[in-house]
Amino acid sequence: MPDYDIITVGGGLGGAAIAKAMAERGAQVLVVEREAKFKDRVRGEWLAPWGVAEARELGVYETLISDGGYHAAGWDTRLAGNSIGIRDLAATTTPAVHPMTFFHPRAQQALLEAAEKAGAKVRNGARVVGVQPGATPSVTLESNGRSESLTARMIVGADGRGSMVRKWGGFESKEDPDQQWLAGILIENTAAPMDYSVAVFNPFASRIALMFPQGDGRARFYFGARSSEPGMSGDREVPRFIQESVKTGMPAEYFEGASPAGALATFSGADSWVDHPYLDGVVLIGDAAAQSDQTWGQGMALTLRDARILRDALAADDDWNAAGHAYAESHDRQFLDLHTAESWSTAIFMEPGPEADARRAKALPQLAMDQTRVPDIFFSGPGSAPVDEAARRRFFGEE
Ligand SMILES: Cc1cc2nc3c(=O)[nH]c(=O)nc-3n(C[C@H](O)[C@H](O)[C@H](O)COP(=O)(O)OP(=O)(O)OC[C@H]3O[C@@H](n4cnc5c(N)ncnc54)[C@H](O)[C@@H]3O)c2cc1C
Predict the structure, then answer these.
(1) pLDDT for residue 308
(2) DSSP strand E in 10-136: where?
(3) Where are the alpha helices (DSSP H) in 293-319?
(4) What is the 159 CA–ligand 1 centroid distance (Å)?
(5) Rounded to whole angstroms, how far apart are CA atoms 185 and 180?
(6) Positive or negative CA dihedral for 266, 271, 275, 276?
(7) Same CATH topology for 4-72+97-176+272-339 and 180-268?
């Protein structure tokens, strides 16, 4: 008999969500999380409407909303500083719910506690140093200077960006070229609106600036540019972050009298993924399976969808090897659509050069007049509408 049904490597949103969902179904679950206490790593804090719907399906919505979650209903798209209208996302998306924002470390802690309450065992401050795939897969972990090996029916790699479980499990990683980056910082006492998010695109300068309100004058701000420009990290770069955000079109008054409430850090936007994230008793979810360009804000929604689809696959089939393959096939379809839509958005909003300028000169006036030309996948999720040649032509203004 294995020691557990499931061992998750990592107790971030993905690891904690699947642990809670499976513990509630009577599985013996162990979560191994290397951090003793979560801190601000500058991670996702805007959960798209389709992610909120997944949170409801998974039974983690109440935990997120009651522990600091915030509904900022609207979405204001600004092209070179001019608003093309504030969209009510609950009224205009397939999931018909508002997006949610939260302080990521707090949400991680709340979900992990919820998993523990549901019966999962949580080992904080323990680091997995190896995974052995096979009919009865195992992990080797280290904590308090001791090393031990534990077996499970299934190992879930939920260890995020730079996943080591990918490597230990024998998966082949794929990666897009490094084209753009996103820098983020939490700001308090901002005069920014608290009832809608702001996305400012300055495509002819290949820049983007984003603001996601969290209530009480707190908001997560991001600024993104091409990888040919230097990124920005640390306190000394905060003035440059603000300057560039304002130059891109984020209103200067949002920063007046405001102050940083966390670190400034920059991350590459290159997608990195594996095809078919199940192999020999080891399954990958969340960023470990597919890290998508955070410029488009889809990572947490995809992570929760992964956890939900894996839960449903494991519930539907006693043969967990078959369930792992079923999950992996579904994951590939979801990610392919997101990856395609992201590459279209990068081509219109971020790519530099005369060809890209000609492309957006055709597309942008039509997008400004008719927002339904933008593939709604980023709000309504993969599967909500086809991401095909007809959708591409509409987005690129070719018809
Ligand atoms: C700058 C930035 C902005 C983003 N903005 C958004 C956004 O607005 N909306 C959105 O939806 N997504 C966004 N994302 C993406 C989002 O943060 C991720 O998709 C999401 O956090 C992935 O969750 P996860 O559980 O897979 O991984 P993580 O949150 O990274 O969790 C992995 C966990 O595994 C633990 N771990 C790792 N290795 C080990 C080990 N060997 N042993 C034990 N524990 C281990 C880590 O400590 C960590 O707690 C953003 C990402 C970045 C970087």
Answers:
(1) 98
(2) 29-33, 46-47, 74-79, 82-88, 100-101, 121-124, 127-132
(3) 299-316
(4) 8
(5) 17
(6) positive
(7) no
Question: What's the rounded Cα separation, in Å, for the pair 130 and 149?
Answer: 9
Please tell me the distance from the alpha carbon of residue 224 to that of residue 8, in angstroms, as a whole number.
32
Residue 35 alpha carbon, nearest atom of ligand 1: 47
Enumerate the domain spans of the chain: 4-72+97-176+272-339, 180-268
Cβ atoms of 43 and 109 within 8 Å: the answer is: no
Predicted pLDDT at 389? 97
Pick the CATH number of 180-268 from 3.30.9.10, 3.30.70.2740, 3.30.457.10, 3.10.129.10: 3.30.9.10
In the reported structure, the alpha carbon of residue 104 is separated from the centroid of ligand 1 by a whole-number distance in angstroms of 9
Q: Choose one of 159, 182, 186 to mutate for the ligand 1 pocket test, by most ligand atoms within 8 angstroms of C-beta.
A: 159
pTM, two decimals, is 0.97
Residue 399 has pLDDT above 90, yes or no: no
Give the pLDDT confidence of 11-34 residue by residue, as tens digits. Answer: 999 999 999 999 999 999 999 999
Position 41 scores a pLDDT of: 84
Mean pLDDT (the chain, rounded): 96
Instruction: Express each pLDDT in 274-312 by its tens digit.
Output: 999 999 999 999 999 999 999 999 999 999 999 999 999
Q: Is 128 a pocket residue for ligand 1 (Cβ < 6 Å)?
A: yes
- Topology of the domain comprising 4-72+97-176+272-339: FAD/NAD(P)-binding domain (3.50.50)
